[in-house]
Amino acid sequence: MSFSSLRLTRYSSLFSVHSSTTWLLHHHHHRRLYIQPLPSFIDNVDDAISSFNRILHMNNPTQPIFEFNKILSSLTKLNHFNTAISFSKQMELKCIQPNIVTFSILINCFSHLGHLNFAFSMLAKILKLGFQPDTVTVNTLLRGLCLNGKVKEALHFHDHVIAKGFHLNQISYGILTNGLCKSGQTTAALQLFRKIERLLVKPDVVMYNTLIDSLCKDKLVTDALLLYSEMTVKKIYPDVVTYNTMIYGLFIVGKMKEAVALLNEMSLKNISPDFLTFTTLVDGLCKEGEVKKATSVLPVMIKQGVEPSVVTYTSLMDGYFLVKEVNKAKHVFNTLSLRGVTPDVLSYNVMINGLCKNKMVDEAVNLFKEMHLKNMALDNVTYNSLIDGLCKSGRISDVWDLIDEMHNKGQPANVITYNSLLDALCKIHQVDKAIALLTKMKDEGIQPDMCTYTILVNGLCKNGRLKDAQSVYQDLLLKGYPLNIRMYTVMINGLCKERFFDEALSLLSQMEDSGCTPNAVTYEILIRALFESDRNDKAVKLLREMIVRGLL
């Protein structure tokens, strides 16, 4: 849907700001009603429906619109958008006059249902009835556009209302900033953010948090830290969300000490860590292999009144597997019920994956069967983890059974599934079956990735079929595939094994020319092969090159 289809231009002569402090041009004098006022939020759909029917069918002809708005607003918050729209139509039939709040609620409903044309038709109705749209109305439309992925149109609408002299607020720019960040346009969000102050709107902690979160997810943590420092200078005080986001960002770029320092800073500023803070900390420490430190966080959590959950314990299990402490991972899993925690699909996935990687496939199979008995919703991660374990233990027949089960349960095999099977077939010297599997993948509409081709080329090389491997390699080059270090290294290794040293050295040069820097493994393969064939001068030259590059 193009922005022109929203037909905003037809409103341009009407969309102007009046100097009057009163927004509504039409007032309705209601006679006094003796009804019990409804709460601002009705948390039960049935109660909202019964309240609506009761007020709608009152004998008093001047039912209060603000009571209806409470009902419509409650239904919207409960995600019953169609019911709210249906009720508005019944109100219209009863000649109950809506106000600006009613229209804003309906705009919100239509936006959540993806009906942006209807949402903007509400704006037309507002203007037709002589109401003046307020900031809430405009913000609701901006949010609706962003919610439906129409961020460019939201910016266009922003420019339109600003040109008409309308003043937007922090919420408006928070919506636009969030929309840009969610659509991966962090740079554009920062540019908008820098314009805000010129429009006499002071950025708030929510806007900073949104930008910091987006920068951290893009691993631009240095830029996020600069924004964090800027907040303090501008006396915009970071909250628990700011700290959670920064701690997460620092962990994903491996800055563990800085992350822990921020946690200590929270305490100094009397900001209480919440569940997300502790969970991020535990997960980050586990991923860094600092499981002992992660376990020491748990008593601190409990002391702060934050109970560890299945997510916390799953991170611990994952951490124990990472540092090869399998029994401790199993102990955590087996004692979950004693801790009042029920394992979920992710917990089982971590256990199945960890056990398979530690060659304890039978135990992984038992957990898989346990999931079946509990009628748990197995996902692709569950199947792929077990399939990889079975493949690595040579149980190919069991793998085919699982692939059939995946298909029957609506979880079709993906590229990860087939890569595991392809690798297993190559390792048991069934290269022709591996090639047939690649054809089957393509026939099923599954696009092989670079990992797929690398597995196949490696399998061909190790099974004495270098020419076939070179054919696949050349085909990838012709099709413009971006080859990675692993692919180049596999080909160099294949050439060295067949004593094609000049070709291997030539490929090393091609690798460099394509912007792919060799790693220690690439050099070690070549150096060992050259030494073994008494080409010592060339081997020593490469060895010196390794030292210069800091790979030794």
Radius of gyration: 31 Å
The rounded distance between the terminal residues' Cα atoms is 57 Å
Instruction: Please tally the helical runs, counting DSSP H or I stretches of 4 or more residues.
Output: 29
Strand runs, count: 0
Mean of residue pLDDT?
Answer: 90
* Uncertain spans: 1-14, 16-34
CATH superfamily of the domain at 474-552: Tetratricopeptide repeat domain
> Regarding CATH, which class of the domain at 474-552?
Mainly Alpha
- Find the CATH topology of the domain at 474-552: Serine Threonine Protein Phosphatase 5, Tetratricopeptide repeat
Beta fraction: under 5%
Q: Considering DSSP H and I runs of 4 or more, what fraction of the residues is helical?
A: 55-70%
Query: Which sequence of SSEs, written as H and E, runs from N to C?
Result: HHHHHHHHHHHHHHHHHHHHHHHHHHHHH
Structural class per helix/strand content? Answer: mainly alpha
Which second-level CATH architecture of the domain at 474-552 applies?
A: Alpha Horseshoe
Largest sheet: none
User: Globular, elongated, flat, extended or rod-shaped: what is the shape?
Assistant: elongated
What are its keywords?
67% helix, mainly alpha, 552 residues, Serine Threonine Protein Phosphatase 5, Tetratricopeptide repeat, disordered N terminus, 29 helices
Describe this structure in words.
The chain has helices at residues 45-56, 65-77, 81-93, 100-112, 116-128, 135-147, 151-163, 170-182, 186-196, 205-217, 221-233, 240-252, 256-268, 275-287, 291-303, 310-322, 326-334, 345-357, 361-373, 380-392, 396-408, 415-427, 431-443, 450-462, 466-478, 485-497, 501-513, 520-532, 536-548. The protein is built from 29 helices and no strands. It has a domain at 474-552: Tetratricopeptide repeat domain (Serine Threonine Protein Phosphatase 5, Tetratricopeptide repeat), CATH 1.25.40. Helices cover 67% and strands 0% of the residues. The model is unreliable at 1-14 and 16-34 (pLDDT under 50).
